[in-house]
Amino acid sequence: MNPVELLASIIREHSPENIWKDSPLAGYRQLGNTNRGEIGEEFIRRYLRQHGLKVGNGNRTSETDMLIETLRFEVKTASLGANGTFQFNHVRLDRAYEHLLCLGICPTKIVFNAWRKGEVAEHRAGTLVRMAEGQGVTFKLTKRLDEMLDIQRLPELIRLIQPEGQNG
C-alpha cells in the first residue's frame, strides 16, 4: 500500500459517520458561514410570507436581521452536527432586537426555536459561551435537536407572540 492510500485508510477509520451523505440539504454544509446565514434569513422570509406574514428585510449592517410583523428578530442559522447538536454562533446582546430566532438545518428536515432577548440574556435559552477568550460581545449557543421545534410551527408561534391587536 502506498503512503497516500495508507493515510486515506486511517482517515476513514477515524472519521465520524457522515449524517449528511445523500441528504437533499447537503449543499448547505458546503457554503461559507456568511452564505449560510443569508440563506437561512431568505428561507425565513419566503417561508413566513407564504404563510401570510409580513416580513421586512434587514441587511448585513443593520442592527436587526429581520422585522416579522411588528417584532425585530436576530436570526442565527446552524446545521446539525454528528453529535446531534447545533452551534449558533455570534449571538450578540448589544443589538436592537426583541427575539432571537435560531434556524436549524438537518439532513432531511428544518427546525427552529425562538426566545425573547431577555430570556437569552438570562440564560433561559441555554448557556451562552464566549466566542473568544477575553471578549464579551459575541457568544455561541448550543442546542440539542430535541430542544428545537418543527419549522411548520413557526408561523403559529409568530402570530402568538405579536402584541395584542397586531396579528397579521
Descriptive account of the structure:
It contains five helices and nine strands; from the N terminus they run H-H-H-E-E-E-E-E-E-H-E-E-E-H. The N and C termini lie far apart (66 Å). The protein has helices at 3-14, 26-29, 33-50, 117-121, 154-161, and strands at residues 55-57, 66-68, 71-79, 85-92, 99-105, 110-116, 128-130, 138-144, 149-150. It is an alpha+beta fold and 168 residues long. Strand 1 (55-57) and strand 2 form a beta hairpin. The mean pLDDT is 91. The relative contact order is 0.15.
- Poorly predicted regions are none
Kindly provide the radius of gyration, computed on alpha-carbon positions and rounded to a whole number of angstroms: 18 Å
Note the run of SSEs as H and E. HHHEEEEEEHEEEH
* Major sheet summary line: 6 strands, mixed
Oligomer classification: single chain
Mean pLDDT, to the nearest integer, reads 91
Shape: globular
> What is the helical fraction, as a range of percent?
25-40%
**Record field, number of beta strands:** 9
Q: Number of helix segments?
A: 5
Helix/strand/pairing category: alpha+beta
Give the amount of beta strand, in percent.
25-35%
Query: Taking strands numbered 1, 2, ... along the chain, how are they ordered across the largest sheet?
Result: 1-2-3-5-6-9
| Span between termini | 66 Å
In short:
The protein has 168 residues and is α+β, with helices and mostly antiparallel strands.
